[in-house]
Amino acid sequence: MSSLAGRQVLVGVTGGIAAYKTPELVRRLREAGAEVRVIMSAGAEAFITPLTLQAVSGHRVRSDLLDPEAEAGMGHIELARWADDILVAPATAHVIARLAHGLADDLLATLVLASEARLWLAPAMNRVMWDAAAVRDNAARLAERGVRLLGPGSGSQACGEEGQGRMLEPAELVAALSAVGAEGPLAGRRFVVTAGPTHEPLDPVRFIGNRSSGRMGFAVVAALAEAGADVDLVAGPSTLATPPGVRRVDVRTAIEMREAVMARIAGADGFVGVAAVADYRPAEVAGDKIKKSDSALRVELVPNPDILAEVAALAERPALVVGFAAETRDIEAAARGKLEAKGLDLIAANQVGDDRGFEQADNALEIYAADRHWSLPARPKPELARELVAIIAERMPLREQHSQ
Ligand code: CTP
User: Fold this and answer.
1) Whether the model pTM is above 0.70
2) Are the C-beta atoms of residues 392 and 322 closer than 8 Å to each other?
């Protein structure tokens, strides 16, 4: 059975010549088992008629946000909730810019903002436009928020030029959508993931913290969920949005993080420690705000529990325990040292400092297992996270078969 069976896919068509491929896309999505509804931007109607898309989708096509008759049926908020996936194909430079900036100036842009569905964009434009710094920035900003960019591909273009900017073929788009969902490689597996920094209080208003933004951890959580895993996220202080379908508990300190992890770890198949847990906390937390004085302030720090090492040492530990290591030098030796010392199955190491790693949209990872090494060069964190999750899925031991 295709993983598109029963999926509710909203196809958004915008004004590019590649819109002529959309009827075939809709037909193929339906053949793969998806239920499809189509919305069009005003520009799209210059390239293809609503009647064609109504015929292939089996539903009325909407293009107007303020259409009283359509709103009386399935209103735009209902449509936003209805969708499991929103696929914008073709996605013009204009719609990419509007989505990157969060505009809500037509039906499609409004639906995207109002929906928790997976968002896929199939860019299609002239190669010079695709290369333009503004388009690249907008696409990178969307990718960083977890939006999935499909292509563009290379080849001859409608404008007569050769290069990157062609919309992927309908069959390729359908294959990409089918690759995620309930039948992903980690379907039926449960993961506990830590992400973000921890804040260790000194007094009621101050804490010791670090520069972790939580982006890498949240990207790993999103990629695990996409691969079909059931995920419990234990998040340190972070304003990032929870990826769809993920259970989240917010914590502040390393001690709270450890408690939240231990309360959820029984029966988990995997644990991924991405959090930048503070190694130390103030021995005492002042009950009142510490007042300024002329003498030096001495703070005694005591070690925090190592959550990752504790999980790996549990008698009934998850089948796969994965750590992260942020290193400023000698990455391989340091990472392999932690792999062994903490009893991990995999460790993902990156170089930090010199503005690399923390707070950055891109990252590079060196991943080590006792018997293997993978090198993932710099790319946006969501992409990197998907590759790490592919390695996790590959290394996940098969379930024991219980004989009756
Ligand atoms: N980690 C953890 N609990 C801690 C410290 C770290 O769970 N108290 C986890 C992190 O989530 C990460 C891994 O351990 O997956 C590596 O953390 P890192 O700080 O690089 O390693 P340390 O063992 O603290 O070594 P050092 O700081 O000396 O490099």
Assistant:
1) no
2) yes
